[in-house]
Design a protein that fits this description.
- Part of the 50S ribosomal subunit.
- It is a single chain.
- The protein is α/β, with parallel strands linked by helices.
- The two termini are about 20 Å apart.
Length: about 210
Amino acid sequence: MKVAVLDVNGKDTGRKAELSKDVFAIEPNNHAVYLDVKQYLANQRQGTHKAKERAEITGSTRKIKKQKGTGTARAGSIKSGVFKGGGRMFGPRPRNYGFKLNKNVKRLARKSALSIKANDKSIVVLEDFNFDTPKTKNFVNVLKALEVENKKTLFVLGDSNNNVYLSSRNLKRSEVVTSSELSTYKIMNANKVVLLEGALEGIESNLNK
């Protein structure tokens, strides 16, 4: 499939970019997308949550009442979770939420995400550009030219470009990544995916291994 290549002013350059059907026009696998997004979000969790349990509470260890004859349930310690100030029963413990996902599933998920965006006409191909110095205003002008300044936008570069990255860093709705950093979550989270020409070859080679 062919897509028009735009310049930084949002004008058609007259050139066409060929998007591989094996990456941008497959039948999306929604379950693979779900699993990859789930793994990405799980890996963001610190898992440092912790509640004090019965053995960690400071308090008396004496038996607080006799075993029988009170007419109420037996109780051996004031640190029990059934009493105010006692330990938390079955509370959270530090853990790792990450889980393994097959590489082929991750590739399928990214191709499915790109195909969904292509089908929704949410992919824009932009010619390679650079800034002389990092300046947010320059990046904002590019967003305005592409009419995406009020949308969540993902820019995908072929190689790391410090000036472009630093120019976008202060903008909450925009993110700049390289083709090797592309993830299913970032694709699906964006309203518009802007692919620079230099990134197309890297994306297709990474996802067609």
